[in-house]
Amino acid sequence: MRQPTTTLPLGPLSAAALALAGGLLALRLAPELPLELFARGAARLASLFLGAPGLRIDEGWALPFAAQPVLVTKACSATDFYLMAATVLGWHLMRRARGLAWLPVVSAAALLAALPLTLFVNALRIVAVAHAHHWVISRVPPAYEPFLHMLAGAGVFLPALIALNLLLELHGHPSATARA
Questions:
Q1: Rounded Cα–Cα distance for residues 126 and 42 (Å)
Q2: What is the pLDDT of residue 49?
Q3: In the prediction, which pLDDT does 79 show?
Q4: Rounded Cα–Cα distance for residues 84 and 98 (Å)
Q5: How far apart are alpha carbons 53 and 116 in whole angstroms?
Q6: Any residues with CB less than 8 A from the CB of 120 and at least 6 apart, and which?
Q7: Under a CB-based contact definition with an 8 Å cutoff, are residues 156 and 128 in contact?
Q8: Rounded CA separation 45/54 (Å)
Q9: Helix (H, G, I), strand (E, B) or coil at 161
Q10: How many CB atoms lie within 10 A of CB 127?
């Protein structure tokens, strides 16, 4: 009996790689994007969620919240999440495309769709970190603050990326009960 061969899905892999490369190139060619687009957009959205004004400072934006302002800097831009989301979107969108001719369109769509998603998820992360600082991080020794800050961010970004992949995986696929 002949074993089935597994083939690498060239289309989705190409779209994911092209979306990743396009995002990296854009961030490299426009070094102001992390601060002026990603951090600024997320800070503005987070300011709406927190009910606090977003004030422009030299390093980025300050959101006066509780006793200590939340600073949103270039390091808070979530460009890594943007690249991962664009890659996942490129993969899944190309799986539904009707041929490699759609590769540039799918990759561009993935890059565009990842932007508002990144701004929204990053704003949620900023709100989570603000509340974590207010309720937890401010009550622990200063040596633990960086780890807890990072943990609060991972607690938002990782589930968001998993949920994105799950939604795209399940979208358009009939359930097992519908197939019977």
A1: 8
A2: 93
A3: 96
A4: 23
A5: 21
A6: 45
A7: yes
A8: 9
A9: helix
A10: 22
End-to-end CA distance of the chain: 28
Query: Which residues have a Cβ under 8 Å from the Cβ of 28 and sit 6 or more positions away?
Result: none
One-letter amino acid of 96: R
Angle at 135 between CA 67 and CA 34, to 5 degrees: 70
Task: Give Dmax over CA atoms of the chain in angstroms.
Answer: 71
Closest CA to 149 of 132, 168, 124, 174: 132
Rg over CA atoms, the chain: 20
The token pair at 4 is: 């089935």
Q: How far apart are CA 125 and CA 130, in angstroms?
A: 8
Looking at residue 72, what DSSP letter applies? E
Q: Could you identify the residue written with the tokens 């977003």?
A: 54
CA dist 49 and 104 (Å) reads: 35
Query: Residue 148's pLDDT is what?
Result: 84
The parts of the chain modelled with pLDDT lower than 50 are: 176-177, 179-180
5, burial (CB in 10 Å: exposed 0-12, middle 13-18, buried 19+): exposed
User: Tokens in use for 128?
Assistant: 């989570």
Q: For 34, which DSSP code?
A: I
